[in-house]
């Protein structure tokens, strides 16, 4: 799903809404009652935020509900938004969403690092945490992104089809963040 409406971008930037969409993608469909159990929020709050997400097409009612207990499901596996826009309103809303997503990523990474001592040795050794400083052109950076996408693509179907997961497979989040590092002086000297 690609969001370009500034109202939708701002709506999705809410932390609980991002959590709900993520949970529906990984564990849905489920009701607002189950959403409250998973998030620690009230049923009324989850119901309200699910309706807002539905307004912008990020979630929809799933079949099989009874009475007031209606299940929800995500409408897409991924959400995209503009990296750049000539429209200042879209650009501002997209940047705010990107910032909210980065904050969410780093909260999750921090929690994972705080709890990694509980993991079996093989998972602690397999996890990765580090960085690389490369000198690239925009075209080279885009090419690296395309190659990373190619590396990950064979594993993507496992998210929606558990029969494809080998024994011992667990959910692993892989963050891909590459940015022009403006904190390091640009030097033409070699």
TrEMBL record:
What is the protein name given in its UniProt record? Answer: ArsR family transcriptional regulator
A Pfam family assignment: HTH_20
Q: What InterPro entries does the database record attribute to this sequence? A: ArsR-like_HTH, WH-like_DNA-bd_sf, WH_DNA-bd_sf
Q: Which Gene3D superfamilies does the protein's record reference?
A: Winged helix-like DNA-binding domain superfamily/Winged helix DNA-binding domain
User: Which residues fall in a coiled-coil region?
Assistant: none
Which domain of life does the UniProt lineage start with? Answer: Bacteria
Q: Which organism is it from?
A: Streptomyces vietnamensis
